[in-house]
């Protein structure tokens, strides 16, 4: 396993970014979106962007299984006096591939999601990018231990829904599909980016107190795909809303096509 | 130099805390305050607190110089699936001692400080502790390159002064000494904690637009001590306010006594 030294700024300050990429038969899925987000993160933090070629080295070895997860970490490297940058920045690029861990099959038909008490703070300079300062997500994920709950739902300080602990959020209202605007906090996922790009979803605002009125709710990311939410649990553990299993799930179909998950039952005949 | 593996959560998420401790003749200065802050950080993040004995191993070797800086990093250790904690948490404690790097001698008489454009976000769950999610400080420190500027001044989203990039802030108003309240953002320094403990300063709020009215302004931490601010520069680089050099600086005297800096000229005869 790769290592970083004590003075690496990724360790010292979370001064870096990462990507978690689904690998199918040794090839990265949605790679242009991952690379675009890396580029945005590097621009925002002022870290030199590695070339496509440098990044491609991370998947040169033969895959050990059909589906793998590639994690890339790019730190600003070592050095500097305190927070000040070193005179010469030498970023450190690390990668690791592990077999894909399958989620419970029934989650494809619907998951339980719990609203977290933690409220995301606003930092527009860091919003959207996948930086290494993830303590809010770590704290939010500690709010429940029940393994039947798939994800926690995170709202901002004004009580607007932003994301799930490790996924983005989507909902249907008056037949249209939406996802939260992430200008002030949250991570802009690559599956979300692809869905926005294709005009499948658009950005808007969803207050927590409007959640029980949405026609459908989903969580999703570029590794697991799209899960419909069947049960929404509030901060104190009570069921706030539930949605029946849909016979037809167009968002999941599109999402799973984007990721190459074609064998999912919900996509049959679409 | 110690290393951490790729899957260490300190690297992956900034899931940990750190301390920077002044070592005088091989002994940590203000240690009870550092240990208290470590304990608060561990409690807040739910990381098992190392014992005094485990921590003391960091300064068992003979010192290489009279003044050193000890940096301790405590991460939650390896593992877990995504943000979820591993079944067994095995924290990783790392330390490194380096010689103290002396700041320009004239900074004891007064420093230039620049107001940063970045506004600190609010996250009461993380405020005060010295966690590893420090991208706000890293970004703020990139706002200037002029080595004559000692520190950047950071305000919160409401425009209240919170801290300096790597120091706390103190000011005098109507003869009394104050420091910002850090309930929603900022790092609660150990020198600041000692000054609060002794009743030398008390917490209140200082809007940016009231800065030019304060009688005196200081920045300080437990390694460098207390520096009076002589010139305050605004976000666009213009001088906002300047203060004459004081013949007598009681805050610096108390601060430097706490750190064992007794030979500083400003402390003569006090």
List the helices and strands and how they pair.
Two copies of one chain form a homodimer.
Chain A: E1 3-5, H1 9-13, E2 16-24, E3 27-28, H2 31-45, H3 52-56, E4 67-75, E5 92-99, E6 111-120, H4 135-141, E7 149-156, E8 161-164, E9 168-173, E10 176-180, H5 190-197, E11 202-204, E12 216-221, E13 225-233, E14 239-242, H6 250-259
Parallel strand pairs in A: 6-7, 6-13, 10-11
Antiparallel strand pairs in A: 2-3, 2-4, 4-5, 7-8, 9-10, 9-12, 12-13, 13-14
Organism (chains A, B): Vreelandella nigrificans
Catalytic activity (chains A, B): 4-amino-4-deoxychorismate = 4-aminobenzoate + pyruvate + H(+)
Keywords (chains A, B): Folate biosynthesis, Lyase, Pyridoxal phosphate
Features:
D-amino Acid Aminotransferase, Chain A, domain 1, nine-stranded mixed β-sheet, alpha+beta, homodimer, 2 domains, 270 residues, 4-amino-4-deoxychorismate lyase activity (chains A, B), pyridoxal phosphate (chains A, B), EC 4.1.3.38 (chains A, B), D-amino Acid Aminotransferase, Chain A, domain 2, globular, Aminotrans_IV (chains A, B)
* Mean pLDDT across every amino acid position of chain A: 95
**What is the level 1 CATH name of the largest domain in chain A?**
Alpha Beta
- Please work out how many helical segments of chain A DSSP would assign: 6
Parts with pLDDT < 50 across at least 5 consecutive residues of chain A: 264-270
Dominant shape of chain A? globular
- What is the count of β-strands of chain A? 14
State the domain count of chain A: 2
Give the largest interface pair and sizes: A-B, 51 and 52 residues
Distance between the termini of chain A: 42 Å
Give the assembly state of these chains: homodimer
EC number (chains A, B): 4.1.3.38
Cofactor (chains A, B): pyridoxal 5'-phosphate
Protein name (chains A, B): Aminodeoxychorismate lyase
Family (chains A, B): Belongs to the class-IV pyridoxal-phosphate-dependent aminotransferase family.
